[in-house]
From TrEMBL:
Its main location: membrane. The lineage of its organism: Eukaryota, Viridiplantae, Streptophyta, Embryophyta, Tracheophyta. It is found in: Membrane. Belongs to the PC-esterase family. TBL subfamily. Pfam families: PC-Esterase, PMR5N. It comes from Brassica napus (Rape). This is BnaA02g29190D protein. Residues 68-120 form the Trichome birefringence-like N-terminal domain.
Length: 413
């Protein structure tokens, strides 16, 4: 660099002057000469402080991950570093996820990291992530847990660049954030069931709690925006645990959680197979979508209610992770996770003209984190006495999902 050559030339002149004058210099000049020589050598051999701004903005190279390593098989280990951000340093945390603000006193849940067996999962790097998605549009398609995931990524990326909110709908379900320095757009597309669905109403126009969904149609709330999307993170699960009649066009296939006469009963994991099969078929056959569209399936995120459900006094008061021997590998969540992945694997066997598919297999990872939910610390004045054991505190273990996401996107590039 030019600056280095200037310092090097100056150092040569200084050394010649020192050599020629050393013999006749008076003793009191020796300290001055030593200091001069020290700073000359420092400037020559130390990295130049006048390097260009563009040099400084080059992201730190990320460690390579062995492609044969299963990122989602491992355990949680203590990590004294804690989160990259705090509940007060990120201005976009919604009140319902700001557990510390609402009185959570323990902090141990913040000091764990996920350690895959046989390799390391790099710590999230917001500078490198934004560089990787420069000029892209990323959409989180799903329910409020998908929104939770997006909010985690928003906080992590805000450590590098402050995002600008450019859209928010009246019900605060769909939001769009923009990172102008990187031309990166991050959004949520809220949907109950991924496919088209609606609740049946009675004669008084009151909801009955029974839903109809149609596998032949996608929910327009997210599908209409898919052609403009570069990276979609797809997830929806918790809304399926209710009475749902499943149709495919004019054909009725059966029902989840309802004992209607002459109706085939469908288990939740079988229902997930039908929905996710239809979902991936739609994405893979999308003619108007970008040829290099990346679709990432995020598997079901478990809840941790104990001693009841959300409306019967259930809570999640634990303050430490579970070990693998403490979780139920035969749980409904694990069965649904398997159903989701099976449908994704069915798609990835085909050739879909450049479209790419991947999985964030977080179910088992998060079954080990009963300590990561808001529980009673979610500040909902309309639902006092009810606990939230479905969503995740920010900061918290959900931040690991974005370490997974970064690793997966890098592998797909």
């Amino acid at each position: 660099m030019k600056s280095s050559s200037v310092f090097w030339e100056s150092s040569e002149k200084t050394q010649r002057w020192i050599a020629s004058n050393m013999g006749r210099s008076s003793p009191f000049l020796s300290p001055f000469l030593c200091i001069t020589l020290f700073f000359t050598v420092f400037l020559v051999y130390h990295q130049s402080p006048f390097r260009s701004i563009s040099d400084q903005n080059v992201p730190t190279p990320q460690p390579q991950i062995d492609p044969e390593c299963n990122l989602f098989k491992g355990h949680w280990v203590p990590d004294k570093r804690g989160s990259l951000y705090t509940n007060s340093s990120c201005s976009t945390i919604p009140a319902s996820k700001n557990c510390i603000k609402h009185g959570r006193s323990d902090r141990d849940f913040l000091f764990w990291r996920w350690k895959p067996d046989g390799c390391d999962l790099p710590r999230f790097n917001p500078k490198a992530f934004l560089s990787m998605v420069r000029g892209k549009k990323m959409s989180f398609i799903g329910d409020y847990v998908a929104r939770n995931h997006m909010e985690s990524l928003l906080c992590l990326l805000s450590m590098e660049e402050t995002p600008r909110e450019i859209y928010k709908d009246g019900e605060d379900r769909n939001r769009i954030w923009y990172f102008p320095s990187h031309d990166f757009t991050q959004s949520t597309s809220w949907t109950k069931f991924l496919v088209a669905g609606q609740e049946r109403v009675d004669s008084n126009k009151t909801g009955t709690g029974l839903f109809d969904i149609d596998l032949a149609k996608m929910d327009e709330g997210w599908s209409k925006g898919l052609p403009n999307t570069d990276i979609s993170i797809v997830s929806a699960a918790h809304r399926f645990f209710r009475p749902i009649i499943i149709h495919r066009g004019d054909e009725t296939l059966g029902c989840i959680y309802c004992n209607l006469p002459n109706m085939t009963q469908i288990s939740p994991d079988e229902g997930f197979k039908l929905v996710y099969s239809a979902l991936f078929k739609h994405i893979s056959e999308c003619k108007n979508c970008k040829e290099d569209l990346v679709t990432v399936l995020r598997t079901i995120s478990p809840s941790h209610f104990e001693n009841g459900t959300w409306d019967t006094g259930g809570a999640c008061s634990r303050i430490s992770p579970f070990g693998e021997n403490q979780i139920d590998l035969q749980s409904n969540e694990m069965k649904i996770r398997t159903s989701q992945i099976q449908q994704l694997e069915g798609v990835t066997k085909g050739d879909y003209e450049g479209k790419k598919f991947a999985v964030l297999d977080v179910t088992k990872v998060m079954l080990m984190r009963p300590d990561g939910h808001p529980n009673g610390h979610w500040g909902n004045k309309w639902m006092k006495g009810y606990n939230d054991c479905v969503h995740w505190c920010l900061p918290g273990p959900i931040d690991a999902w974005n370490e997974f996401l970064m690793a997966v996107i890098r592998q797909l590039r």
